Request: fold
Amino acid sequence: MGAVLTRQELIYLKNRFNARSAKFSKNETVLHIGENENQLCFLLEGTVYLCTENEHCERSILRFFRSGEYFSSAMLMPAEYAVSYMTAKYPSEVIFFGREELFRFCAANPDWQAKFTELLAKQGSRNACFTDFVLHQRSIREKLMLFFRQEAHIQGSDRIRLPLPYTDLAEFLACDRSAMMKELSKMKGEGIISGKNRDVFLDMSASSAR
Reply:
């Protein structure tokens, strides 16, 4: 798995700090710009999207967060550029930790300090750079292959469960859904991927040979 906190670790920290948690329904807004600025939000369960909307109310999915990952309002774009918010894709539960209190705890506990240092580094700048790298690929296939390989690494298997529905995946990869589905059909025909629905098996030998 990638850099995440386990459910057990999150519940321990929640009890340790008597932290507030909240449940959100599907499509309910979790965070707005400027909200809970001094907190780190950890996803106990569910999926949360970082979204923007332009002046035409056209939505873009910039990031997505899965169980064990963190997010904060500092990740949201300033309001002068676009409407920016976090929303629950599915019913989700979020734990809100005070940033300074959490950092003081880590400073006094070397094991937790190491864990959070890795978490903040890997989930923050590295994941953001990888997302930018994917989006800068010229073809839909290149975007898909990089995304699949990253998921195989995170999930620890070439048999992956797509974390996003196909419509949202196309939105995240900034490509047309119909064109993306056609490319996926071609990749299946060439033996690069197989599987049904959101369960995908990635044949690394076939993909690396092309």
